[in-house]
Each structure stands twice: as structure tokens, then as C-alpha cells.
Amino acid sequence: MATVSVPGREKAVLWSGAVSLTTVPAEVVPLTGRLFDGLLESHRLGYVRIAMLEADAVRVSRTAALISAGPRTEQQVGVGVQVSGRAVLEQDGRRAEVAPGGLVLYDTARPYSVDFPERFRAHLFHVPQRLLGLPDHDLRHVAGVAVSPTEGCGPVLLSFLGVLAASAHSWSVPVGDRLAGSVADLLSVLISQLAAGRKADEPVAPNEHLVRRVREYIEHHLGDPELRPERIARAHHISVRYLHRLFESEGVTVGRLVQQRRLEACARELGRRSRTVPSVSAVAQRWGFVNLAHFSRTFRAVYGVSPREWRALRTTDGD
Asked: Which terminus of the chain is more exposed, N or C, with fewer CB under 10 A?
């Protein structure tokens, strides 16, 4: 989409609407007095949405009002790759300045704003948070953080995202699905690295060690169908009520966390290519699901396809 053929002041309005449709609803305000000019191209690789923007100086704001008024959609982790020009993103009280060649992370579920003070090119990648397999507090630690081309696994992710943006239009659906999985894996590694570094520099909350032990306990017992809040609380010598209170600040209930981690483990195993392919029921039982029908319904509700369809999409070679 290009604004070159659009009359006068309608250019910014059209470009703003295109940004909202291809990414998330946002307000766009030009920062120059002259007529606005912008380009936008969008693609989808599996569950990853890609938007390639080029425009004059502009401010893009994702406000609380837009978030509350918009349709309920799943939480997305955003990655903004700065190709040319500068960007300044603010979220959660953090201010991240991004030079060409760098990237910035943000959370679409909470307000943020981005200033592009000069003509720019940027690539935006949106990935559902549930596919990263990370706790909410890790994302809160890195939202509004800029990553240089030399930081952590940033160079690997930046290089890969650059290739994807240039070739997004050329991949078949099966290949696109698998490439999307690679984006999620690399992004998960980067966020984990950044979150660990930020936590090391921050004072530890009184209950953080206990929450960490509970999470580790859950990870080690995911395959146990009897893994319930009562058992988890008893193993840590606390009440069930206190266990639930611990996880209120995590933004997830204990039961939902157990289910989420089990589903993620099943999704990884079903998507793994190997000579011996376990049945869907075997995978479900290995990760604590005793009722296959319930597992299939729950899996479809989260991933949008049945477990068998998920496995077929990820284990079939693309053209």
C-alpha cells in the first residue's frame, strides 16, 4: 500500500488505517508540516505477522483506550527492526532508542508509543506470546528494551528476520509455518537472555525464589496427571490459598500455567521430525492428559488446529 496516489491530507489517514489493520490498532500522527508520504507491505508466515513500513517522520501510539475498545485478541510480542532512520519507543516507563541495524521489543497488550523523528524504514514482526513458552514476568522485564546488533543472540535473530522480510512473499504455506517456528524459538532465547540479565541487576522480591521453585517443580512433574494446586502447595509446605496469591502477580493461575506448559510440551513433541512418530494419544498421556477428547479440544482452542493437523503441518516437507 502506497500513499503516493492519495489526495493531500488523506494520506496520513489511509496509512494509519493500514498500520492498524496489519499490526494492532494504533494512532498515527505525522511529525512534519508537509504532506505525509508512506509505504506499507504486509505478509504472514504461519502465526507470525510481518509489516514492512517506510514513511516520513511520525508518531505511532498504542493507547489504553484503543486497547480496551478493540476486539479481544491474544497477546502478541512485537519486534521492531530498524532498517533506516531512528526510532524511540516508550513502554512501561522505559525509553528505548533504536539506531539503524538494531531492534526493540514491545508488548501489544499494554500501551506504548514510537517516535520516528525522520523518514525511516522498519520491519515489524508480531508473534503470539503463548508460543514462546515464557512466563509473563520475563516479557515485562524486556518490553521497551532496545537490542544492539551485537547483544546476546540479537545478531542471529536480526540476520534471520532480515532474510524473512526480504523473502516473505516467496514461501509456501508449509515452509512458512516452519519458519515461523524458528522465529518463535530465536525470539524466546533472546528474551530469556535479556530477562536473566535484567533480573541479575534488580533486587529480588521476597517471594521470587519460592515462585521459581514452584515453577521448577511444575516443569519436573508435568507428566503427572495428579499435578494439581493441592499437591503443589503440599510439596512446598504452603496453603493452596497462598499458592494462588503467589501467582496473582504472575498474571496466570496455577491450573492455567500447568495446562499451558503441558500444551507447549505436546506441541513441541508433535512438531518434531523423527523416524519414529508417536501417536497423538501417547504424546498427550506422556504430558499428563488422561482424556484424549479433552486434550484435542483444549489444543484446538489454543493453537487453532487439532493435534493431528498441527503435526502434519510441521512434519511435512514444503515445496
From this structure: C
Q: Which residue has the cell 499494554?
A: 110
What is the strand order of the sheet 87-91 is part of? 27-30, 58-62, 112-116, 87-91, 94-98
Span 90-143, pLDDT tens digits: 988 888 999 999 999 999 988 999 999 999 999 999 999 888 888 877 888 888
Delimit the CATH 1.10.10.60 region(s) of the chain: 209-315
> CATH number of 209-315: 1.10.10.60, 2.40.50.140, 3.40.50.1820, 1.10.1270.20?
1.10.10.60
Contacts of 27 (CB under 8 A, 6+ apart): 16, 59, 60, 61, 62, 63, 66
SS3 247: helix
**Which pTM was predicted?**
0.63
Pairing of strands 58-62, 48-55: unpaired
Compute the C-alpha angle 188/156/108, nearest 5°.
40
Q: Which residues contact 18 (CB under 8 A, 6 or more apart)?
A: 1, 40
Determine contact, residues 270/248, Cβ cutoff 8 Å.
no
Number of H helices, E strands in the chain: 12, 11
Q: How far is CA 295 from the centre of its chain?
A: 24
From the number of C-beta atoms within 10 Å of its C-beta (0-12, 13-18, 19+), residue 78 rates as buried
Architecture of domain 10-200: Sandwich (2.60)
Residue with the three cell numbers 520516528: 116
